[in-house]
Amino acid sequence: MQGLKEKPILLTGAAGGIGRAIAKRLHMAQCRLILAEKTDELAAQARQYLLPNAPDATNEAKIVSLAGDISQPEIAAHIVQQAEAAFGGLYGLVNNAAILEAKDGGIAATDYQTWQTTLNMNLTSVYLMCHHALPALKRYASSYGGSAIINMSSITAHRGSAQAQIAYTTAKGGVEALTREIAIAHARDNIRANCVAAGPVKTARTAHYFDTDEKWHMRRRHIPMGRLGKPEEIAALVAFLLSEEANYMTGASYLADGGIANAYLVDDKKGSDTP
Question: Is 54's pLDDT higher than 60?
């Protein structure tokens, strides 16, 4: 990707399936990476995933791992401070951390604690990271000509579902509204902000949604491409939006959903037999 070499980028939720794919893609683009996770163990896993078996001091020096609950204001602030200090600036922020609670269902069934926990992690943490990162991003943009925020959204922010996840859906809708506001308010600071709205993607976290033929075929018939997305496909879009090739793109949500958002009827005869 053009213009990403050596640029410092902070990625949250770096140990999950999509997070690891984003980290790998950015590492291949020779970014300087700050990988954030909730625990020291997960942060270490995210870093180790990028490192070769043979030690390479140059390679290792470009990857920093940080740990903490970014839904807590003081921790989010501390992680941003550490991230900026790690490489002397901050070009990019990718808010990928999110949860999906088993008790998150329809409006009548979802309890307050599930609602609050989900919104704290999936929306409040995004606000906190953007809030604390904006001064650092502005400093970088002032010195080097630009910086970028990518907030991970979801197809659920664009389309409703009879299999409701009311808290998750609401949080992702809020992420998109937040992103638009940031983009417009800071466009003339040369800070771009965009969303990536993924459809169903095959990861360890989502596997239980597709672990029987019945579950998979029920989902498949709504996906025009007839298959799940790959984490690497989402990562490619994130890297593009961070790059200089997307310098005129801000305030938008970019769908990577296999065509779901634009479908009315789907011909399901040739879909994949397995997720």
Answer: no
153 beta partners: 197
Burial (CB count <10 Å: 0-12, 13-18, 19+), residue 250: buried
Place of tokens 């169903």: 200
Q: Look-up: residue for tokens 């690891």? A: 20
Q: Which of 168, 209, 248, 254 is catalytic?
A: 168
Specify the long-range contacts of residues 81-86, CB closer than 8 Å, at least 24 apart: 81/132, 82/34, 83/8, 83/10, 83/34, 83/36, 83/133, 83/136, 84/8, 84/136, 86/8, 86/32, 86/34
Q: Any catalytic annotation for residue 168?
A: yes
pLDDT at residue 179 is higher than 70? yes
The CA distance from 111 to 106, in Å, is: 10
Q: Is the pTM of this model over 0.70?
A: yes
- Measured from the Cβ of residue 37, the count of other Cβ atoms closer than 10 Å reads 25
Tokens 């992702």 belong to which residue? Answer: 172
For residue 42, the 8-state DSSP code is: H
User: Residue 222 and residue 47: Cα distance in Å, rounded?
Assistant: 36
